[in-house]
Design brief:
- 43% of the residues lie in helices and 17% in strands.
- Helix 5 links the parallel strand 3 and strand 4.
- By secondary structure, it is an alpha/beta fold.
- 30% of the residues are buried.
């Protein structure tokens, strides 16, 4: 396992496909303005800054989560927060890179 894998930034095409097959929701953790500038169709937007206050809402979705952002760093933080709260999730990395894996 390399450092990129440890950070959730390694090759994740297979993981993404596995999560998509499980009906995962794509959660974009960028700001509303960033999301408005472009995003994956059908994704939900909850900024990293307010993620902790939305954990119960996310749990009610009752679906695995693929987190994404611009580069993969914020989604790595979001993945850590979600996992600590018992939510099945992976870091999808940057939204444009993730979109190409869908």
């Amino acid at each position: 396992m390399g450092i990129l894998d440890f950070l959730g930034l390694g090759n994740k095409t297979n993981d993404v496909q596995e999560y998509v097959a499980k009906g995962a929701i794509i959660l974009d953790v960028r700001t509303k303005d960033e999301f408005a500038d472009g995003h994956i169709k059908g994704s939900k937007n909850i900024a990293l800054q307010v993620l902790n206050g939305n954990i119960e809402t996310i749990k009610k979705w009752n679906k695995p989560i693929i987190a994404c952002c611009r580069s993969g760093m914020r989604s790595a933080q979001a993945t850590s927060i979600l996992k600590q709260n018992g939510i099945d999730c992976i870091n999808g990395g940057g939204w444009q890179s993730l979109e190409s894996k869908l």
